Amino acid sequence: MKKLFTGNEAAARGAWEAGVKFAAAYPGTPSTEILENLALYKEVQTEWAPNEKVAVESVAGASIAGIRSLACMKHVGLNVAADPMFTFAYLGVNAGSVILTADEPGMFSSQNEQDNRHYARAANLPMFEPSDSQETKDMMVEAFDLSEKYDVPVLFRMTTRVDHSKSIVTCKPRKDVQDKPYEKNIPKYCPMPAFTGKMQEKLYKNLEKTKEFSNHCKWNYIEDNHKSLGIIASGVAFRYAKEVFGDNASYLKVGFSYPLPMDLIREFSQKVDTIYILEENDPIMETEIKAAGISCIGKDKFPRRGELLPERIRIAAFGKSKETIKPNTETIVGRPPALCAGCPHRGFFYELSKLKDTMIFSDIGCYTLGALAPYNATDACICMGASISGGHGVAQAFKIKNEKKHVISVIGDSTFFHSGITSLLDASYNKSSYLTVILDNRITGMTGHQQNPGSGYDLKGNKAPISDIEQICRAINIKNIRTVNPNHLDEMKDALEWGIHCEGPSVIITRWPCALKRLSTEDKEEFPGVFTQKYHVEMDKCIGCKRCIDTGCPALEFSRNQDGKMSITDSCVGCGVCSQVCPVNAIVKG
Ligand code: SF4
Ligand code: SF4
After folding, report:
1. pLDDT tens readout for residues 320-338
2. Cβ of 546 less than 6 Å from ligand 2
3. Which three-class secondary structure state does DSSP give residue 253?
4. Sequence-ordered list of residues with C-beta below 8 angstroms from that of 529, at least 6 positions apart, any chain
5. Which residues form ligand 1's pocket by a CB distance below 6 Å?
6. Distances in whole angstroms, Cα of residue 189 to Cα of each of 24, 151, 185, 536
7. Predicted TM-score of the model (pTM)
8. Which has the closest alpha carbon to 51: 513, 552, 416, 427?
9. Nearest CA residue ID for atom 6, ligand 1
10. CA-to-CA distance for 72 and 369, rounded, in angstroms?
C-alpha cells in the first residue's frame, strides 16, 4: 500500500510498523505532528508529557519494562531531555527505544539554531538521518531493531523540510514484536558507582560494533557518476545535492550518520578528484573527515547558518542562481507577526506596556510577540521556564544594587507546566519579591492546540484530571494570587498595580481561552457567550484618533478612503478590548 506522507506522518507510521506500544512527547515545531499521528493508531499508548525530560524518562521506563517506546521533541527539547538521555545510554534498553529530535535549521519558530548531531557524539548514541518520508518510515523500523541488537537507545534526527514535506511511502504491516519479559537487573538499570564503569565500557564496545553497521548498512551507499566531483551528504542535503548537481557528481549518501562510515568514506575519496561535504548547519562530518586526513571542501564554500536549500548550494557552487519569475515587490507589504484578533494576551499586554520602571522577562510562546510593536513590552527571553527563574535573578540583582525597578515574569499555561513550576518554587523558596503572570489560555497555543495537564483532556481526546494552576501556586507557598479576565482592562490594570507592589512573590493568572480554540463543554460553561458576538465601528461617532490601534488587533482596519474612519474586519471575535480604549464609544457590539 502506497501513501503520500509528510515526514512526521511517516515517522509515526514507522513507529507503528516497528511495533511501538508507548510514545511520549512535548509538542514543538517541527516535531508536533508525529505524536498527533501516532495517536491515531489504537495499538499505541500516546501521551503529551509536561516536558521532554519527562517524555524520555517515561519512554526509558517503558523500554526497561519490555515494550518498544518512542520519545519525540524539537531540537531545543533535547536540551531539556539531555539529563536522562545520557544515563539511558549507559543503562541500555530492554525493548527497543528511539529518541527523535526534529532540528530546525533557519529557526523559523525557535529561539536558536541547534545541530543535534552533536548529541549523538556527546552521548555515544547511534544516529539515523532520513532524507525523505520513505526513508523516515523505513529507518524508524530499523532503528528499533538496532536499538535491541546493540542494547542502546537510538537517536533519530529529522530537520524541518523532511518533517513537513510530502513524498510517497510504501507501507508495510505492523511487525509482530513480542514484549520482552521484565527482569530485575540492578547492575544494568541502577547507575551507581559500582556499576557505571561497566555500563560505560559496554556502551563504548557497542558503539564500536555500530561502526561496522555504518560501513555496511543500506543507508550509507555510494552512487558512482562523474569522478571529477564527489559529494558526501546527509539528511535532506542529499536530496538538494541531487537536484543541483544531478549526474554531474558522484555521491556518498549518509543516512546512518553516527558513527560515520569512515571505511566507505575512504573508499569514496579514492574514486573522486574533489569532495564537497553537504550538511545542514555545523561542519560535523567535515571535521571528522578532515581529521581522518581526507581533503574535502565544506563550510568554506557552503553556508553554515539556516537551511541548506538547493538555491543556496547552487549560488555557493556556481556563483549564480536559477532563472525564476520575479515577484512584483511593489504590491507586497511587509507585515510583522502579530497576536491573533481576539487573543486573550492582547488586553494583558496593552495594560502591561503602560507600566513604567519595569523589567519584563518573557517565556516561549505566542506571547513572546509582546516584545514587538505596538506593545514593545518584553525585555528578555531565554527558554522554556526561564521567565520566572530569570525574573528571580533580575529581582535579586535589583535588590542587591538597591535599584527600584519592578520585575514581571510572563509565562503561558503549558510552559508553566513544562518547567515554570520549579522556577516559581525557586522564587518562593528564596523569598523573591516580584510578579509572575501566568497566561492561561486553556490550551497549548503556539504549537497548534495540544492538550496539557491544565486543559482537562489527554492526547487521545479523553477526559483527564485538571491540574489547577492557582492551587499549584498555593501549594508552593505563593500567598499573593489573583485570577483575572485579561479582556477586562480595568481589572487587568488593577491586578498589575496590585501585583508589582506585593511583599514577596505574587502571581496573576489571566484566564480566557485562545481565540482559535475549539471550545470544550467546560469552556462554554466557564466563559458564557465567548466568541459569539463581533464588534463594529459606528462611523458617525469615530473621530479617527486611531487610539484603538494601540491594542494591536489585526481586525482593526484604518483606511483613508473611508474619510479617516476606523473599521473592523470579519476576523473580529468580539473580545471587546478595542471598545474599552475608544474615547468616544464608537466601537460597539453587533
Ligand atoms: S473586539 Fe476589537 S480587539 Fe477584540 S477581536 Fe474585535 S476588533 Fe479585535
Ligand atoms: S479609538 Fe474610536 S474614535 Fe479612535 S479611531 Fe478607533 S474607533 Fe475611531
Report:
1. 888 888 888 888 777 788 9
2. yes
3. strand
4. none
5. 341-342, 535, 551, 553, 555-556, 568, 572-578
6. 21, 12, 6, 64
7. 0.94
8. 416
9. 572
10. 26
